[in-house]
Amino acid sequence: MLNRRQLLKSSSCGFGSLALSSLLGQGLSNPLSPKSPVLPARAKRIIFLFMAGGPSHVDSFDYKPELIKRDGQSFDFVGVRKNTFGKKSQRKLLKPLWDFKQHGESGRWVSSLFPNIAKHVDDLCFIHSMHTEGVAHGPSTLFLHTGATNLVRPSMGSWVTYGLGTENENLPGFVTIMPSASKGGPRNYSNAFLPAVHQGTCIGRAGLPASKATIRNLKNPHLPLNAQSKQFDFLQQLNRQQAQTKNDQNIDAAIDSFDLAFRMQMNAPDILDLAEESEATKSMYGIGEKATDDYGRQCLMARRLAERGVRFIQVNYSDESVNPRWDQHSNMPKHKVHAHATDQPVAGLLKDLKQRGLLEDTLVWWGGEFGRTPFSQGKDGRDHNPRGFTTWLAGGGTKPGHAHGATDEVGDTAVSGRLHMHDLHATMLHLLGLDHEQLTYNYAGRDFRLTDVAGNVENDIIA
Amino acid sequence: MVVNSRQLKITLALLASGSMVRANNSEGIEYFETHIRPLFVEHCYECHSADAKKLKGNLYLDSRTGWQTGGDSGPVIIPGKPQDSLLFHAISHTTGDLEMPPKNQLPQSEIEHLKSWIAMGAPDPREGEIKKSTPPIDLNKGRQFWSFQPPVTHPIPKPRDTGWPNNDIDRFILARLEAQKITPTRSASKTSLLRRVYFDLIGLPPSPDELKAFLQDKSPQAFQTIVANLLARPEFGERWGRHWLDITRFAESSGGGRSLVFPDAWRFRDYVIDSFNKDKPYQQLVREHLAGDLLPHSSPIQRNSQLIGSGYLVLGALNYELQDHELLKMEFVDEQIDTIGRTFLGMTLGCARCHDHKFDPIPTSDYYALAGIFQSTRSMGKGSAASGVTSFATTPLEISNPTEIAQLRSSIDSLKKQINTLKSSPDLKNFPGLIIDSNEAQLTGNWKKSTATKPWVGKSYLHDENTGKGEKRAQFNTTLGETRDYEVLVAYSSGPNRAKNVPVTIHHAEGKTTVIIDQSKPASIWETFTNVGTFPFSSEKPATIVISTERTTAHVIADAVAFIAPNSITPQKPKTDLKKLESRHKSLAAKLKKFQPVTMAATEAETIADGHVHIRGQVRNKGAKVPRGFLTVASQAGISHEIPEGHSGRLELAEWITDPQHPLTSRVMVNRIWKYLLGEGIVRTVDNFGKTGELPSHPKLLDHLANQFTKNNWSIKSLIREIVLSRTYQLSSKTADNSDPENRFFGRAHRKRLEAEAIRDTALHISGQFDPIKGGLTIRNPGQYDLNYRFDSNRRSVYVPWFRNSMLPIFEVFDAPNPNLVVGRRSTTNLPTQALFLMNSPFIREQSELTAKRLLAEAGTVEDTYLLILSRPPSESERLSTQTFLASFPPDEKTEAWTQLTQALFSTIDFRFIN
User: Nearest-CA distance from A157 to chain B in Å?
Assistant: First the structure.
């Protein structure tokens, strides 16, 4: 029996001569062929480690001695929720639940929540002055992904493939690993009005084990490959007979899409299969340990996809519940569980990317849709905080071991070097060599862009 | 941001020093040169000067006239009044909306310099004019654009070949083809034509028997008969209703973060299907969509149908979770205006929300004239105070057996009254003691009167708004007649947001005692009071009770205090009557809900008023008031649709849009119908008739169709019949003439794609799995959100739950429209995911297997298989290939062989395209 690769070579479908350009039906140029960026590019791809629910910056990366000192004291804070919008009310400060220490040569502060990520601080570029739109998870999560809280806009990954194409024609340019159906769900990886080819492709979904994560319909559950190959040849024979007298590009494209699909079916499963990775690599990612197995597999998959030229890889740490994982309105100690599940996998990914030289041109982005308040909610919880929080970047031309901006003395509001989510989007596009003001798409009579009418590139975080 | 006392002191000190500078002219200019000019140059000129790469907010700060004139938000400096100057608020980051410079706040010292400078009268030596802003839109010039001119009656052209045309449509088409020297291709074969017209009119293929009958019918009326039959079939409304649902961005959930399920949206879907089947005049359909709640009616059924029609306005995609309610309201209005513009007018009105439309002659004032109409419309429900999530708007439908409902309602009302009386006003007439109400209390700090939560004593109670903790106190003073022990009672209305640690201090004969009470728990005495203890009081000394907010973190209530003889009242359990009444009320309300269907609908708002322009689209940046009205450019001089006092203007908007002379409405609709039948529109950008849209290929034909449409009482079926019976529609998709590669002149048929729904419906029909039940609620156990809905229906696709954040995979894969947007033209992609779906999905495999079994059971042949799936017999080469393929399987794998054949046919291009 033939194996997949032999079949690939011997099949009569003419893979080598296949041009993706004919697949897309609308026009001649292939929207996914790699494009040269307009600006000098520092990064070729992005791996986005999405921490759904809003991890607390004051408990992890934003060290605030004043918050520790004033633990239990009450101050006026301005409300952002529907019933308290714009009104001040007294809130009691809650000190971080974990101890902070300085790490690395850069001396960046990290709490004991992330002991492994802490070892890599000299590669990280912290942005302590993030602020964003929306207060509830839905709007803020959509804003993080699409730059809009309510209006329907393409996801950042879609914009990136629209701007840069893909380096691997056998794989989608934008993948999202185990996304949640909640908090905007598919809209977070939707192409919206961009051509459908820029839609994010899901690998698995939140709530299922990562070991089962795959692309939908990638395998035929009934037929072994050689049997399917016979059926496939028959189908394409009929198709060519039917196309003969039609002389229609659209029809040719439809036929060609079957060839590409068959090629994807041959290639993609190999990439998602982690079996060929060494035990050492797997354990570096925490694979095999109960707590870290899922996110470890996701991170390792991300590295494999990055190696093969996928442009935008989102690695979701999320679930399907109304209160997403990092959403500790009560019981802040539960942050420990989530930190533990992600710390080793993320550290493993950073180490692996670095030792393979991939960190050079891969931009790693860690963050949630917002941070959490320095004051307590109930006894031991923290509420959402879009006014100030921390995100970090690594590689891809960012300044290593650097800390940009700051929140106020207790960590409530970004006060210096303020960086809006639009600014972060603009800066990341810039690192990819894309000008966020030029990367536009004309839809229904208007040019749209990821950053709407805002966004400034922040040079302070660029190496 | 945290404000602490240290910062406060610094601010005060700076204020004092600032006010010492006097507005002496030369001194002032010197101050400007020393402190202000450098500040402007360094922090502001980048975006607010003639040299700015990109001027922001239309504001110049490089001349005195610049800040005097101001930008989009008006003058930014009021000399002498820093507190009234927008610039000062922007740089001190006090408003939250506008913060300048955008990234970093200026050092406190520079903010103080600016404040002092404004306070001294803003002396500024910089003379000179600023650049003129862009000229306003010229509406008269705008009206010249073709789509803003009303349709004109054109003479019917007389093409040279008089034998070719079937009707006037053909005369327009042929005349143009002849002018372009294009020879139209031959007519399509009867087989191709039948499949085409079946899919176009009912979205399903002809059965092999129907095909046979048509091929045998040699009468000249054969095709007309088919068309008449198809137009009368209920599947017609399902097919064309689905088109209309695309255009009305219909969905059964809200989309956004928490995608709320709309459990009653199916009524709108069924109403649309029914409207198309009944050939409701388009004019009436539009009126019902915009003002169904306001139209006259002669029966409850008509009333209901019209009300359901107005669901159009409230079915849009919206993030009901947005916490900024003012913004949410405006987002809703924006969605409505943008959708109405695209659906009926083919205009992108949303662009004018932030600035005058850059391409079309639509000034911002027109946008806000429309916005006033929808701000005067109730489009949302209240929602939950706890989660901050707003709800969608529903209205009760009329029911056919009103007596029972009326009785039910009246018993519910009377129950509610009894409950309220029991709850709100404890009967204090016989109260055995002295009560001091909150209106007699001596208050420190701001307390707010409220009657939100029952019960209370007197007319209302007070709460501290959960602010100013520690500084607010409510003091109840009296002198008691006798010197003895009294039991002290404190009244409050309890609730989950109440403080659990409210300090109550009792000043009694022997000093003072502070007791902490928990106001989140219901009070135990008469459901109003809680006992804080028994204390000695003297008639010589004042008896004082102080309710304080010290150290509380939730709402503190001050309602009343009372003094009674010890043990004269015993705490009671909640009144049993009340409990009984409440439970009865609950069960009757549930019963009513069952009897009382609701529908999603818009209604007039409580307040009807003109709206303001929101400068640069920002909700809190209000400009001039604009009278409610419509698009100036598409309104004819002389014809006015006045909005009467007290009307939102929706009814008048509907009248304006459906005026037969409206330049856009009829054209946009006939062009949509043409596109669905011919594959491309006369205007190919079917949702965009503006300057950035395409021009019509046949403007006279478009006018002709539009005029015929309005003349025929806006009948959609008549127009479809006319088009389908034209020779143009019946042409083959093949041609030998290559002079019009894009087929702009309709010299041949455009090959069309089968939509997701048609693929699925056909597969289910052929396999025998089709569930024929029509209409009604099809969401299984509607929950709160559409998250992870498990689709398991075999009904026709139009009846499959249609959610915004969760869609049946086959729809997603085969280009079903994004239900967040108005889609008059679906995209047609050839992505490999489609091929993967056809090759590997369990759905296609299952339908193929069932079809194969059905064929084998009926001793079907290869020819039968092709007739069933492709509605045509196989070609010779196909027959040969197929036989070879089937022969390659061992005899005991017959079912597998035929399953694979069927599946392959579902994947062929002749299945996926309409030739």
Answer: 18
pLDDT of residue B585: 84
The vertex-B650 CA angle with B645 and B651, nearest 5°, equals: 80
In a domain, A241, yes or no: no
Check CB contact under 8 Å for B836 and A261: yes
Name the residue with tokens 């939250």.
B96
Q: Which amino acid is at B11?
A: T
A445 interface with B at CB cutoff 8 Å: yes
- Residue B146 burial by Cβ neighbours in a 10 Å radius (0-12, 13-18, 19+): middle
Give Cα A379 distance to the centre of its chain.
33
Asked if the structure places residue A237 within a domain, the reply is no
> How open is the CA angle B137-B139-B144, to the nearest 5 degrees?
120
Contact list, A73 vs chain B (CB under 8 Å): none
Give me the CATH number covering residue A389: 3.40.720.10
Structural domain contains residue A4: no
CA B61 and chain centroid, separation: 39
Binned at pLDDT 50, 70 and 90, residue B454 comes out as confident
**HEC profile of B432-446:** CEEEEEHHHCEEECC
pTM of this structure: 0.76
d(CA B360, CA B355): 12
Q: Do B1 and A419 touch (CB under 8 A)?
A: no
For B686, the token pair is 């079917």
- A210-224 burial, b at 16+ Cβ within 10 Å, e below that, comes to beebebbbbbbeebe
Query: Is there a contact between B131 and B50 (Cβ–Cβ < 8 Å)?
Result: yes
Residue A83 with chain B: CB contacts under 8 Å: 385, 388
The reply to whether A388 falls in a domain is yes
Chain segment A329-385, per-residue pLDDT in tens: 989 999 999 999 999 999 999 999 999 999 999 999 999 999 999 999 988 999 999
Secondary structure (3-state) at B338 = helix
Sorted by where each starts, the structural domains of chain B and their CATH numbers stand as 5-119 (no CATH), 281-396+602-657 (no CATH), 433-568 (2.60.120.260), 840-914 (no CATH)
Tell me the residue length of chain A.
463
How many domains does the structure of chain A reveal?
1
Residue (of B342, B365, B822, B372) closest to B631 by Cα position: B365
In this structure, which amino acid lies at residue B427?
Answer: D
A243 in contact with chain B, both atoms CB, cutoff 8 A: yes
Nearest to B439 by CA among B564, B558, B562: B558
Domain of residue A282, residue span: 32-218+247-461
Task: Please name the residue ranges forming H helices in A244-385.
Answer: 249-272, 279-284, 293-307, 335-355
For residue range B207-266, list pLDDT tens digits in order: 999 999 999 999 999 999 999 999 999 999 999 999 999 999 999 999 888 889 999 999
